[in-house]
Structures are given as C-alpha cells and as structure tokens.
Automatic annotation (TrEMBL):
Region spans: Disordered: 1-23
UniProt name for this protein: Ketoacyl-synt-domain-containing protein
Family matches, as Pfam families: ketoacyl-synt
Keywords of the record: Multifunctional enzyme, Phosphopantetheine, Phosphoprotein
GO BP annotations listed: fatty acid biosynthetic process; secondary metabolite biosynthetic process
PANTHER family cross-referenced by the UniProt entry: FATTY ACID SYNTHASE (PTHR43775), SYNTHASE, PUTATIVE (JCVI)-RELATED (PTHR43775:SF22)
CDD domains: PKS
Length: 226
C-alpha cells in the first residue's frame, strides 16, 4: 500500500461498526479472474506463467494491420519499421452476448473493455464459489478503473480529422490530466483497490468487486474491428 494510506490506517480509530460489534476489519480476497497477454486467462495460468519466467511479448498479429492495408499499403510499411512486437490479448472479439442477455446489436457497440469486464467479473464470482445471481438485490459495490483512450469514433484513425480527434480525445485527455494532478504516479490502481476495501469497513458481511482494465487496441484502428 501507499505509505500515506498505511500511516493513516494505522493511526485511525476503529470504525463504529467494529467498536460496537468487536468484529475484525480484515478483508478477504475470495475470488480472482484475469485476461492478460500470453494466453493467461485465469489466476492459475498466470501463476504458472510467472513461475516459469515466460515472456508474453510476441509478433504483431497480421489482423492488426488489416485496417491500415485497406486504407494505404504504404502506412503498413512505415508502421512496421516502428515496432514489430507487443503484448496482445486473444479473443477480444469473442463475446457471448446472449449469455449476458445483451442484444447482438448492442454488443457490437460495446467498448471491448466492457465486454471483457463482464466476462471477468462473472469468472471472479465463480472462482469465489458465489452464484452470480445470488447477488441480485444485495449491497455489493463495484469499483473499476478503465482506460478509454484507445476508442475513437467509428472510423479509421488515418481518415480522422482534427475535429473528430478533438471530440473524442479532448474529454479523455482532460480526465487524464485531472487524475494526473490528483494522484501521484502508481497510486490510481491502489485507489481502486482501497476504495473497494474501504467500502467494507462499517458494512461487514457485504462485498465489493474491484477491477482494472487498460486494454488498448492501438493497431486495429477501426472500432468495429475490435
């Protein structure tokens, strides 16, 4: 934890709920799920991957160049000289909309991060042994940090105008600047986790779900190709 938060927690008095009930304020992480490069789609797979010191860096998939090739073949050659490798999550386009009771039309317009977050949240509950529908009507909080800088309007970046860039990126850049000014480097992810844990203090027996998503599809530049 960030030192400032640790110091504050260590000196704060007990919450009213703890003082009156004598119950512990311990927080238990009971369910985990993930989608990470290297085909790491579960905590167990990630642990095995890290324990064996594997590297998730790989060649850029050919499909990532398709939008550029349709627009201008020269752009592909230029970008290929910039970078040839990266970290990629497979199966971004795979989403069972019917399972989540979402129409196919609506699913096409969802941010890939939102689709992935739904899947991972469901898996985290299963990993915890909690039937997802058992939480309906409960006081379960959701805290999530996402990065939306990689989503533009439904068009190629190469064909975007300065106006269209401004409409999409200006509010995102403004929001990022606010977060940059408010939080020291490396503390925003901690804020999500701390907010989730803090919600439990004084509300023992309830639950929180914390998530972070920074998927950026920077090369497949057409929104519908995500």
């Amino acid at each position: 934890m960030h030192k400032d938060i640790v110091d504050k927690l260590s000196h704060d008095d007990q919450s009213p709920a703890t003082a009156s009930t004598g119950q512990s304020q311990d927080v238990a992480v009971i369910g985990l799920a993930c989608r990470l490069p290297g085909d790491n789609n579960s905590p167990e797979e990630l642990w095995h991957f890290l324990a064996n010191k594997y590297d998730a860096c790989s060649e850029i998939p050919p499909a990532r160049w398709e939008a550029y090739q349709r627009w201008d073949a020269a752009s592909t050659r230029i970008l290929a000289n910039v970078t040839k490798r990266g970290y990629f999550v497979d199966g971004i386009a795979n989403f069972d909309a019917a399972f989540f009771e979402i129409s196919a039309k609506e699913a096409e317009q969802l941010d890939p991060q939102q689709r992935m977050s739904l899947e991972v949240a469901w898996e985290a509950l299963e990993h915890a042994g909690i039937p997802p529908y058992s939480l309906v009507g409960s006081d379960t909080a959701v805290f999530m940090g996402v990065n939306t800088a990689g989503v533009l309007e439904d068009q190629l970046i190469l064909s975007a105008t300065s106006d269209s860039f401004g409409r999409v990126l200006a509010p995102k850049m403004g929001g990022s600047l606010v977060l940059h000014r408010l939080f020291p480097p490396g503390t925003l992810d901690l804020l999500i986790l701390f907010s989730s844990c803090g919600h439990l203090f004084g509300f023992l027996g309830q639950g929180s779900y914390a998530s972070g998503n920074s998927f950026l599809n920077s090369l497949a530049t057409h929104r519908q190709s995500l």
